[in-house]
Amino acid sequence: MAKSSSNKTQTNKDKTTYKIAVFSGKGGVGKSTVSAILSVAAGNSVLIDCDPQASLSHWGDLRDSDPEVISLPPTRLKSKLPKLDHDYVIVDTPGALVSGTIDALKLMDLIIVVTPIDTFELAALNDTLNTAEVARKPIALIINRLHPQANAENALTMFSELGVPVCPVVIRERAIHRHLLTEGKTCFDKKSESKASQELTEVWAWIQEQLAAN
Ligand SMILES: Nc1ncnc2c1ncn2[C@@H]1O[C@H](COP(=O)(O)OP(=O)(O)OP(=O)(O)O)[C@@H](O)[C@H]1O
Ligand SMILES: [Mg+2]
What we know:
The protein is an alpha/beta fold. It has a single domain (10-213), classed as Rossmann fold, CATH 3.40.50. It contains eight helices and eight strands; from the N terminus they run E-E-E-H-E-H-E-H-E-H-E-H-E-H-H-H. The strands form two sheets. A six-stranded parallel beta sheet has the order 5-4-6-3-7-8, with helices on both faces. Strands 1-2 form a two-stranded antiparallel ribbon. The longest helix has 19 residues, at 195-213. The chain binds adenosine-5'-triphosphate and magnesium ion (MG). Adenosine-5'-triphosphate binds next to helix 1 and helix 7.
């Protein structure tokens, strides 16, 4: 997919690398799922798996195509990043706030906070945003696992007061995401376009707009 213009870290004279972390203070919200999908959407990307559970490293082992997946604790990100000259570095953060996570977020061009939408998640989301804000980097919110029949407008309205950009395209709960990830794939690896891949294409386009805006 095409890369947005302008901005950010130059690893060599002609190369710009955008660094994006997928973050939440809460476990199980879809960080790894979204990281994997975005890394494929991004094209020339490397996926950094900072989670000691290494679920994305296993996902990468099952793949026969890009992206390269590198398993790395957050504390080692700073020395690794300058050696990467891909267009995008996507960083999947651990389920719990482990040592070095905030410092890792400080190295990013964009912090994507992933959240499902229910009452308990909303309480946790405030804590997550407070944590992410410590890094002083642009934050963008993506709603994940919205029920297929739920009204997206209502969901978006709930988040509109938070003071961070919210992706107008929500990621729906779709069994295909679960199934494909266990096979080392994503919705972009299917030959035919699906609702899931359309949705994620729009989400990726919005992320590129956030990068360009910042
Ligand atoms: N949009 C979606 N539709 C259907 N299933 C989803 C979706 N997003 C995530 N899931 C499923 O939810 C579960 C948790 O997702 P995932 O492992 O990506 O979360 P996580 O935030 O990375 O968790 P952890 O904090 O443990 O690292 C997985 O079984 C995954 O397949
Ligand atoms: Mg995970």
